[in-house]
């Protein structure tokens, strides 16, 4: 009774046979690992190149705090077109259109004479008077200097421009420290605009005669 029959004994589970690795599978695995390694090596230089290229490109700044100011040359000496005679009188010549003005400036109480007449009497237009006074107010010389002007040619507008340039050049020669103030105000620049010449077959420089079809 204790002895069991061979049929009643539980059958033992047979172990699954291990899969055999063929040489073909080994070659495929080796090939896949080589391909992955090549891709990683190829991707590494590209990443390094992008990083170096980004670092090499300088950042653009459009003004602001980082913008560098132009270096000022301490040895720069402006061209002084006015002169000072032996008596200490500053002289300057100004031109505008066909007008030529010769200006003389010396220390005084603010006297202003143009062709032997006071400024307000010679220039009847208030605009011309204000232009001359604005130059003196800008340089803070109003009432401190006497100005004598001799002007010829052109009209009132051209003569006013010539006088302004002549005064600016004379003041610059008298006091070189006024150069930056006069330059910033545009008083040292010669206005080169002229009247355009008349053309043949036209009424004026560009204006034509009236056209009649019949």
Residue share in β-strands: 5-15%
Low-confidence stretches: none
- Number of DSSP helices? 5
The strands making up the biggest β-sheet line up spatially as: 1-2-3-6-4-5
Radius of gyration (CA) equals 47 Å
The percent range for helix content is: 25-40%
What is the CATH architecture annotation of one domain?
Answer: 2-Layer Sandwich
Question: What is the CATH class of one domain?
Answer: Alpha Beta
Overall average pLDDT: 82
Q: Topology, pairings included?
A:
Layout: H1 23-56, E1 83-84, E2 90-96, E3 99-107, E4 112-114, E5 117-118, H2 119-122, H3 126-138, E6 145-152, H4 156-174, H5 179-185
Question: Can you give a write-up of this model?
Answer:
This protein has helices at 23-56, 119-122, 126-138, 156-174, 179-185; strands spanning 83-84, 90-96, 99-107, 112-114, 117-118, 145-152. With 214 residues, it is α+β, with helices and mostly antiparallel strands. The chain has a domain at 83-185: Ribosomal Protein S5, domain 2, CATH 3.30.230. A 6-stranded mixed beta sheet has the order 1-2-3-6-4-5. It is flat and about 115 Å long. The termini are far apart. 18% of the residues are buried.
